[in-house]
Each structure stands twice: as structure tokens, then as C-alpha cells.
């Protein structure tokens, strides 16, 4: 059997972009890694959502329904590499503890989604939960909208409904609701047509679909409908600019924008899309007469390894962002490990000063805290300029919160003590330790934080401290800097034991108003999240 895989190529030095292509490989040779081994793999997270085994990517159709949060996500049931996309399903009462349910959506042999159920959205229409998603089938290049050098796929938009209160079973309409991109574009120049994101405005459904035009740039197509089945194409909601570089895969060059999401936030609208290995956000005004979006602020949603996110509203109406955290190790390594990819923690989106996006970890995560330790400085140390470090975090499963008002250059490093030292506050001992993450801030350059080599914007109000909030889980670090810029990182290590991790700080100790660390309570008894 021939299956497809998703391959992460190298980063461009300029954008540090995670570049993606659809690839292909033979399935032979994949031995199934036993669940007992997966449950012991210290690199598997303990408080993030991921399937018990195999490959996952984008969150799909997250929805709060009948008192429960349902999460669906791109899933390959056959191997820990991209391919044969299904929608896997998990359910939760708090968006933190999950129970896996059987796969919700599978390709229909011979149907318009015979080669994959790609990403999409869940909405409720007249009381019925409905999936709108992209179906793909292999086709000759002249009939394909995915032509990325590895695959030729025809993409169509599909429809499925569920009457099951637990959303386990779904009934598909056998024919597409949109059979191809708008006729007004030259078919051969369309760079993709996928990831539908409908929303309701008054009595009308609107829908954004990711697309683009070769040599012109990515764009988001806007459609309208009364019933989610008959769709009328209107115009591009927004279009990108001519890309500077070229690539075989138009997602790598920015000629195709994937996974759009468009929603109101405060008195503004937010557009999110993924391209060139990065997620872009734009905040602006949605002109309801012209049905055009006019962005006023823009940025990256995460400066590290985070892709194809999707939002939902929680039961209180807050806007929650979910994103896929991919692997950054070689394909051969993750496919041999038996699992690949995970879901980021729930992040709350709000608008901040000057309508910039604010990104805050969901407060429910605080329930998982245990074993709090606080940095206590002896009076003699306070005010001096020294290196201090936290007690070590066990099992790579914890949270660190540091609040600092830097009057001197400041750094926070997560270190893996390679050589065990009795005295973790001994600067010389710490010098020999491997760095998992480095964060640098200088009051001389107050608008930026440097994380590893990546610059991230920071807007500190006069006199306001900088807050660094870190979640560490197996092989993942999620950093929330000032609840404004986020950075997600993967770190790997050999063997069957997670390293101990310490936070090491250099700067003026009197600048530090808080350094608190918690161990985190795992969300399941093993690493299988059942
Ligand atoms: C983004 C993406 C989507 C597509 C899905 C396929 O990661 O490429 O555009 O629907 O993955 O798995």
C-alpha cells in the first residue's frame, strides 16, 4: 500500500520558517510500537493532548456541544508519518483532561475524499452539528489543486452532519458542496483550495477557504450560503502580496495560505492563516457592506514550532486557540518512535493595547499545579548581580513563572544538568550544563526579547514588569512572554529518562519580583491520554 507522509524541511535562516511539503513513501517496514513502550517514552507529553500512537497534525472543528468540549484532529491511523488523513476525536469537560473516542471521519473509498479528509470546521446549523471539510482524491495535474512536487490531489469542500449527542457518528453528503475553485480564476494558477472555515452573520453563513494564485500570493476566498450546502462565491476576503522567493510547494513560498480562521474579537475582527511554516494574525475591521477585511495590526502567532491553529469559543464565550505542535526531529526518528505531533495547550485570545493580540494560557491549567517552590533570596543576595537557579524540575513536567523588572540585562535559561552538581547555585557547575532554551532581555532594547536566536516583540508599559511563563512537558516547551509573544520549542534527548531541568537566571536579583515553579499533575495515568 502506498501512503503519503508529511515532511518538514529545513528552516530558512531569515524567517526561521518551518517549511512543509506533502511527500510520499511506502508503508512497508513500519513495525507497530507497543502501547506499553509508548506509555513509557519520556519524550511523550503528560499534560498535552495527543493520540495514543501514530501521526497527528491540525486541530479540526473544535466545538463545545452538550456540555462537552470535542476536539477533532488530522490523524493517520496507519503510521507515525503524514498520510491517509482521518479526523480523530477526543472529548473533555475542561479542555485539559481528555478521553479518546473512535475516529470520527474516515475517507470513503471511491468518494470525493477517498484519499483524505483534510482540515475543516464544526458548526451548528438549525440545531445540527455539521462538519465542513476538504476532501481530496488523486487526480492528474491538470485536474489537481495540490501540485506540490510530491502529490497531485483534487480538493473539494465536503459536508457531514451528526445526530449523535456524543458526536461519534457522522453522515456524509456523498457529493461535494463546492466542487472546485471559482471559475473566474485560471485553474492552472490556483495554488490550493482547502480548509473551509464558515461563520454565521445574521441569517447568512459566510465561509473562508484557503487558496492563492501562483506568482501573485496567498488569498482567502469568501463564500456565502443560507443552508451550508448551496454556496455562492463572492470575492477574496483578503489577498497577499507577490512572493519574493519561489518553491515547488506554494505553501513554502507564501503563494498558498492554509487553515484560515476569521472571527470577531472585541469590536474588531481577527484573521489567522498559516503559510511558509508560520502562523500569521491580523486584527482589523470587517466591512460588512463590502464584505472586505481591512487589517490594522499584524504579527506571528508563535515564533517557534506551531502551525495550522484553529479557534473556538468556550462555554463562557472566550476565544480559545488550539494549534498543532509538530516534530522537529528527522522523519526516520519520529516514525520509529511510533508517535508524531501533539496539540498545544489551550490559549485564550483577547485584544490588548492598540488592538494587538494577547495570548494567555487558559486559567484552568492552574488546577494541574502541585509542589510549588518559590525562589527565596537571602538578604545578602538581594540586589547583587549574580546567577541564581531554581530547584530542578522532575520528569520534564512543570511550569515556571518569572516576573522581572529589568534594570540590567537579564537572561533566563532552561538548563539540563549534564553533570550532576551538589550545589545547583554554583555558577561554575551550571556552565557545564546544556541549554534547552535561552531568553535574553535588555532594558536598552525594551521592545524585543531574544529567545534562542529569534527576536520577539514585547510592548511593556512604563514601569510594568516582564512576565515569562513556561510550560515544560516531555519534549515540549511553550513560552508565553508577557502574554503577547509565544514561542513553542521541541527538545529531544536519548534514553528512557527525562532530564532534570533548572531555570537559571542572570541579572540583578532585586529586579526579580517572582520566580515560582510547579510540578504539573499528569492528565492520565500513563502517557496515552485515554
Ligand atoms: C496544514 C494542512 C492543511 C491540510 C492538512 C492536511 O497543516 O496542510 O492545509 O488540510 O494539513 O493534513
What does this 3D model show about the protein?
The chain is built from four helices and 37 strands. It folds into two domains: 7-32 and 49-344, Glycosyl hydrolase domain, family 43 (Tachylectin-2, Chain A); 363-520, Jelly Rolls, CATH 2.60.120.560. The model is unreliable at 1-29 (pLDDT under 50). The longest helix is centred in the middle third of the chain and has 7 residues, at 331-337. It is globular. 4% of the residues lie in helices and 50% in strands. A hairpin with a 2-residue loop joins strand 16 (258-265) and strand 17 (268-275). A six-stranded antiparallel beta sheet has the order 26-37-28-33-34-35, with no helix packed on it. The chain is mostly beta strands. The chain starts with a strand and ends in a 10-residue tail after the last strand. It binds beta-D-fructofuranose. Beta-D-fructofuranose binds at residues 57-58, 74, 85, 118-119, 134, 194-195, 258-259, 307-308.
Amino acid at each position: 500500500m502506498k501512503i503519503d507522509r508529511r515532511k518538514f524541511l529545513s528552516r530558512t535562516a531569515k524567517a526561521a520558517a518551518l517549511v512543509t511539503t506533502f511527500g510520499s513513501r511506502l508503508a512497508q517496514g513500519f513495525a507497530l510500537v507497543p502501547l506499553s513502550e509508548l506509555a513509557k517514552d519520556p519524550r511523550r507529553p503528560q499534560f498535552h493532548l495527543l493520540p495514543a500512537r501514530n501521526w497527528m497534525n491540525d486541530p479540526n472543528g473544535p466545538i463545545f456541544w452538550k456540555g462537552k468540549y470535542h476536539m477533532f484532529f488530522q490523524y493517520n491511523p496507519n503510521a507515525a508519518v503524514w498520510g491517509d488523513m482521518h479526523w480523530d476525536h477526543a472529548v473533555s469537560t475542561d479542555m485539559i483532561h481528555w478521553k479518546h473516542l473512535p475516529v470520527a471521519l474516515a475517507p470513503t473509498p471511491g468518494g470525493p475524499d477517498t484519499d483524505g479528509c483534510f482540515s475543516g470546521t464544526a458548526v451548528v446549523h438549525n440545531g445540527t452539528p455539521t462538519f465542513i471539510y476538504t476532501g481530496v482524491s488523486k487526480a492528474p495535474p491538470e485536474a489537481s489543486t495540490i501540485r506540490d512536487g510530491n502529490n497531485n490531489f483534487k480538493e473539494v469542500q465536503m459536508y457531514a452532519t451528526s445526530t449523535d449527542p456524543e458526536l461519534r457518528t457522522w453522515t456524509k453528503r456523498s457529493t461535494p458542496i463546492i466542487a472546485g475553485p471559482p471559475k473566474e480564476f485560471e485553474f492552472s494558477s490556483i495554488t490550493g483550495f482547502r480548509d473551509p472555515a464558515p461563520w454565521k452573520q445574521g441569517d447568512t453563513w459566510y465561509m473562508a477557504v484557503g487558496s492563492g494564485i501562483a506568482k501573485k500570493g496567498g488569498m482567502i476566498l469568501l463564500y456565502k450560503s443560507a443552508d451550508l450546502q448551496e454556496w455562492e462565491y463572492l470575492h477574496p476576503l483578503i489577498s497577499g502580496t507577490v512572493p519574493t522567493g519561489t518553491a515547488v510547494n506554494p505553501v513554502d513560498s507564501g503563494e498558498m495560505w492554509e487553515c484560515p480562521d476569521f472571527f470577531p474579537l472585541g469590536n474588531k475582527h481577527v484573521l489567522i492563516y498559516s503559510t511558509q511554516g508560520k502562523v500569521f494574525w491580523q486584527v482589523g475591521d470587517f466591512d460588512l457592506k463590502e464584505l472586505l477585511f481591512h487589517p490594522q495590526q499584524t504579527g506571528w502567532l508563535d515564533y517557534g514550532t506551531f502551525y495550522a491553529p484553529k479557534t473556538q469559543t468556550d462555554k463562557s464565550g472566550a476565544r480559545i486557540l488550539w494549534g498543532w505542535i509538530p516534530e522537529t526531529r528527522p522523519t526516520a526518528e519520529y516514525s520509529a518512535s511510533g508517535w508524531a505531533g501533539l496539540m498545544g495547550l489551550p490559549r485564550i485570545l483577547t485584544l490588548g493595547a492598540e488592538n494587538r493580540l494577547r495570548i494567555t494560557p487558559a486559567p484552568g491549567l492552574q488546577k494541574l499545579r502541585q509542589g510549588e517552590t518559590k525562589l527565596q533570596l537571602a538578604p545578602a543576595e538581594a540586589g547583587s548581580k549574580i546567577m541564581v537557579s531554581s530547584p530542578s524540575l522532575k520528569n520534564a513536567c512543570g511550569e515556571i513563572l518569572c516576573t522581572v523588572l529589568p534594570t540590567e540585562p537579564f537572561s533566563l535559561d532552561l538548563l539540563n544538568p549534564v553533570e550532576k552538581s551538589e550545589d545547583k547555585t554554583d555558577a561554575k557547575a551550571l556552565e557545564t550544563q546544556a541549554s534547552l532554551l535561552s531568553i535574553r532581555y535588555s532594558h536598552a532594547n525594551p521592545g524585543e526579547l531574544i529567545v534562542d536566536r529569534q527576536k520577539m516583540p514585547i510592548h511593556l508599559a512604563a514601569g510594568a514588569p516582564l512576565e515569562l511563563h513556561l510550560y515544560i512537558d516531555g519534549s515540549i516547551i511553550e513560552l508565553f512572554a508577557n502574554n503577547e509573544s509565544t514561542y513553542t520549542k521541541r527538545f529531544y534527548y536519548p534514553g528512557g529518562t527525562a532530564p532534570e531541568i533548572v531555570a537559571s537566571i542572570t541579572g540583578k536579583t532585586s529586579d526579580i519580583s517572582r520566580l515560582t515553579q510547579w510540578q504539573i499533575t499528569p492528565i492520565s495515568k500513563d502517557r496515552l491520554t485515554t
